Amino acid sequence: MGLLEHSLLHRSFSGEPAAWIPKNLVKEMFTYYLFFGGIMPSFTSRRAFLSTALIGTLAGCAEYFGDEEEGTTANTNTDMAAETDVSQPQTLTDEARKHTISVDTEPFEDTGIGFELPASHVRKYSYESIEVRIEPDSPLLGLLESETEYVIEALILDYSTGEEVGHGESEKFVPSELNEPTHVAVETVFYVPIPENVVTYYLVYREASHPPTVGRFLGEPLMATNPFRVTEEGIEQATPEHERESKTIDYRDLSTQEYHPPTGTYSRINVEGGYLVYFSPETPSWAPKIQSEMPFYIPKMTYDKWKNQDRPRVPESAAERTRYITESFEIGMGNHIANIINNSGFQQGVRSPEELLEYISTFVQSLPYALDSISTGYADYSRYASETLVDAQGDCVDTSILLAVAILGGPLMADVGLFSYDSDATGADAGHIAVAVNPENFSLDGPTFNTGSGRYHYIEPTAFWRPGEVPSQLRFDQGAFHEIQEPEGGF
């Protein structure tokens, strides 16, 4: 286990902020409030960062550079419907079709995040319809063109595979005409009379003039529902396979390493169809202050999908791990995660691209460090970005994946890859993975790695170093560069 001891010097920025506002960020900033009720968070200050020195790490990330032992693979997707003895009816009675599941819509009053939080836009749902309440002051409506006609679209998705098994949409409405809370009905139709597996409703806004999003999975929902199955009596809820409880946790209880003791609190709230996740880290005096309310909405289906992903339990190469980044964008979660982090920086006064990159890096660096063997029970486990947020911990592999997603999905114009180092390059008994970045419209201090197609700077994912700075113990020129494959449709 290699340690990299360094001092966190008190530093400050000089000069006036550049008059730079990221492309579309003013509009995108509304997603910061995460679709729930139109409530403006009351920002709270945090205690001053007291320590001037921490011990960081380049360790715990490099079992994949050692001898590979034959391992096992994770369980493949479990059909939750198969866990019951429920017989599949051929048809449903009118009464069964109308049997509804009511959703808790009372706001959370004690979230530990400084403001009340409505629990759901979905009021109730059945086999044939969903009732949604649209709040006229909801920030999500700020993403829509005020005079354009929209519908609320429902994708009925197989919970395990994401395959679309049904569809529905509401009547048309115009956002500017919503002067009071409005209840909207979304009529649904299943493509098969009775789906065999557990399903979920996944709701999105869509311009009425656009064709239905049949067969496409959108990653930034208005709201999802909890998984449910269809029985002779109608629909009944199913328990997500990897259900996570609501709780607020001290960062120090999430970190598995005494020498990487980030401070702050983490809140996860189990809501209808997903998890609301908030981070309140403390940062060094020279680093950006991270927004104390950073709401992410991670659908339960997405979290369970990645937890059930059939992935190696023997060490993967750094090149193989880039797919965790690409696949996050292929289901849309990459853009959602990047929006929240980038927009939070805008709320904190970030205006230049250099400041934004430092803000993003500081947020990821502040996450609790956790060895795979302790936090997952596996010697090696790569987390998707949404997993890292819900689990609120990870090693250098996990935070590098999250950091790359946050940069690629935001307004920064930069090429991104991964750097990998073996134990010879770290000067320790473990290797390391970090993020490589090649900004297009600004420069960074520090050495660069010439790939032939660009010169890439280093960003440390596990300890507080500014973008471009390389830990003194690391032999930067011995690293290997790994390109991230662009997903279909781009980042």
Task: Give an overview of the whole structure.
This protein is α+β, with helices and mostly antiparallel strands and 491 residues long. The chain has two domains: 3-71 and 244-483, no CATH class; 80-237, no CATH class. The chain contains twelve helices and 21 strands. The chain has helices at residues 25-28, 94-98, 251-254, 300-307, 318-321, 323-330, 333-347, 353-365, 372-375, 385-391, 396-408, 423-426, and strands spanning 3-7, 53-57, 101-102, 122-125, 129-134, 150-158, 164-170, 182-190, 199-207, 223-224, 228-231, 234-237, 247-250, 264-271, 274-281, 296-299, 414-421, 432-439, 449-450, 455-459, 480-483. Strands 3-4-5-8-7-6-9-10 form an eight-stranded antiparallel β-sheet, with no helix packed on it. Helix 7 packs across helix 8, helix 7 (333-347) packs across helix 11 (396-408) and helix 8 (353-365) runs antiparallel to helix 11. The longest helix is centred in the last third of the chain and has 15 residues, at 333-347. Residues 1-60 and 62-88 have low confidence and may be disordered.
